[in-house]
Amino acid sequence: MTRKGFGTSATGRTGGEPLLAIVGRPNVGKSTLFNRLIGGRKAIVEDTPGVTRDTNIGEAEWGGVSFVVMDTGGLEVEAPSEGITDKVRRQIRKAVDQADVLLFVVDGKVPVHPDDLEVVRILRKTEKPILCAVNKIDTNAHAENVYPYYRLGLDPLMPISAEHGIGVGDLLDSVVERLPSSRSAGADTAEEAPIKVAVVGRPNVGKSTLVNSLLGEERQLVDERPGTTRDAIDTPFTWRGNPFLLIDTAGIRKKAKVTVVLEKIAVIKALQSLERCDVALLMLDAGEGVGVQDAQIGRYILEKEKSVVILMNKWDLMRGKGRSSRKTLDEVRDHLPHLRFAPVVPISARTGYNMVKALEQVQQVQAASHMRVPTGELNRLLEEAVKAHPPPSEGSRLRKLNYITQVKGAPPTFLVFGNLSRKPETSYQRYLVNRIRSRFGFEGVPLRLVFRKKS
User: Fold this and answer.
1) Cα separation, 209 vs 347, whole angstroms
2) Dist CA 34 CA 271 (whole Å)
3) Which of 216, 225, 426, 429 lies 20 to 30 Å from 97 when distance is taken between CA atoms?
4) Tens-place pLDDT, residues 61-79
5) How far apart are CA 189 and CA 181, in angstroms?
6) What is d(CA 417, CA 170) in angstroms, rounded to the nearest whole number?
7) Helix (H/G/I), strand (E/B), else coil: 36
8) Does the global pTM surpass 0.85?
9) Whole-angstrom Cα distance, residue 352 to residue 247?
10) C-beta of residue 401 within 8 angstroms of C-beta of residue 435
11) 68 φ, ψ to 5°?
């Protein structure tokens, strides 16, 4: 099915920062170099060939010039044109088409591979600037390994060690020289910050399909086999003039079922993506309902105190199943009592059903997380709540709650003063949180109460 996306991908190259695409055969060190250029460990790095499948995007800056770096999967020229390999190849073609400068990475510890010559032939057809980084030149003794690569006919050859950072500064100098219309870093400080949205859930619930549906292109690889997505992939995205950053993550399975090292790393990356997101989209499979692992992922979200929207995906497959929509959605809240405050949106990532509503909910939840409630209104609510249901006494001493004020947002945090030597029981804290929600909203947003003894 070919369908337009709901927004505009920031890498559609209609403007903005220039783009550098890293290409090359599997296991030559592209992801290590990508991490080095963006100054972090965003891409998964492992000695196993084919670790990177999706294109991964990051921001880099050198000499006052900012640009976008795109890491791509390993290009295997002679591999069969089917399954995952063919999808990776299409992703690389798209990255090459979008790029302003191409960075071709080869392995300086092995002889020139026939595929290297074929990849160069393909890249030359683009008539774009091409730089060749001969990687894994870790010591002076390895320097002579560069000379065989002059067969590629590329100039200059840049000997580097992505792992140790050797030669990367010279490489970046050459990259910046070839970037078109480079802008100084910090030139866009007045631009609106994007809403960072992490898409999380069990394997094969449709997370990558959701991202592709929003973008209107196959940015993330989609396959029926679980585990296709490995990295946490960032994709800038604009909808109705509002910037988003979509973070597609690997499926999170039960710890006992995660045995492969790569999958363990991918799950860690998925959980880390919750650290840096504003809103988590918890995706469920409507046909399978809420499982134990879905509830556990929900607890991960709550532990990180992140705003959340629950998406019931594959809703188009629910017709004729003999269950009412309302009953199905109510069951979600019953099975996820710790996320009862989160909105539940039935969607179909495949057909696009209710995707606009899902994005609207993300915006509403993000706005709610930054909402501030006047102190006067909060204290009127506290007085009413305590009068209706006083806090349990502390031994023979009556507890009093005297004053409440909001001290921050994201998550909204409320400071409560009283005569307490310790905070009230969890059930009473939950009672106060529910009263705050009932009065002021905060749908999809976790609330934090901090208790302090009045001096």
Assistant:
1) 12
2) 21
3) 225
4) 988 889 999 888 777 655 4
5) 18
6) 58
7) helix
8) no
9) 19
10) no
11) -100, 135
